[in-house]
Amino acid sequence: MNPLSEKLKNLRKGKGISQEKLAKYLGVTFQAVSKWENGTTMPDIMLLPEIARFFGITVDELLCVEKYDENRLFSEYEAKACSLYRDGNRREVLEIWQEAYKKLPNDIRVKEMLMSAYYDTDKRKYQKEIIELGTEIYYSDGDIYYKNQALEEVAVTYAECGNSSLADDWASKASSIMHCQEKLSSQIDSGTALLQDVRFYTFWAFRNLFYMVVKLVSDGVLKKEQCYDTLETAARLFEELYKEDDAGFETLRQMFNLHSLAAEYARDEAVAQYHLERACELAIKSSKVSAHQLNLPLLYGWDIDGAPENSKSVIRFMRSDLENCNAYDEYRKCGWFKNIADRLASLS
Q: N or C end of the chain, less CB within 10 A?
């Protein structure tokens, strides 16, 4: 259905009038009005002012010109920001959405993107901006997705800035995992919709698991051996789901990080070697991944993006990590360690 068809139908139903009444006013048949609303045909251009006058709006509003321009402009900003984000250019992403906000100050999508850009750049520095935008989004009449995104980022920002009371207050507004939308949808959907529910839930559950594991390890609550066991278990779960490392760039980077961190907490040299060699393999694969759909259990049909323009960022990160991480000092003279370093150097 084209925008005019949908707009016309909504306007007519909103006023509670029949197709016959509108047709009579315009001097056309009700079949003509029906075809307009179904998108089969379009009104004669000479009728547009009369239709707009009947509903008390402008022709631009009738044709959704402003909304079309907003969507086009948002898509342009989104494409630019997405490319920069995947290359790790957080500051440039923030500047993109700051510019977009000046032009589209009432677009909830822009507000959410700007809030997230502040969040990803520096939660502490931009605490005020994140909380103001997040609060505005949460108490708006916008889609539940934007409300939940705002809720999460406001809660975490308060926590990062030491206000645990307000962080807890915002976190309490969220629904539990047992009652989340995707879980409930999977109970009532079937066929293609059910498949979509499952793959969406699976992807995001694993992505969130990664961040939970990293935070748990960095929090200092676990002993060294517990840190290793946690990282190694998470790595095995990812590898069981993403068989043969069939995953997108971001997921491969997460798998790389799990193995890289596991190497730092390794019990002995052999274990450290395994994880660093595996991390090296994942770093190289991340630079070569191409866009495609997954054909994996629980992820059938999930779309993944190819490597970004800065495709060797993980390789360069690992090379730097090998050079600077104190946890590897005892391995630097080992042949296997030098082989990994040389391999990364030749590729970066």
A: N
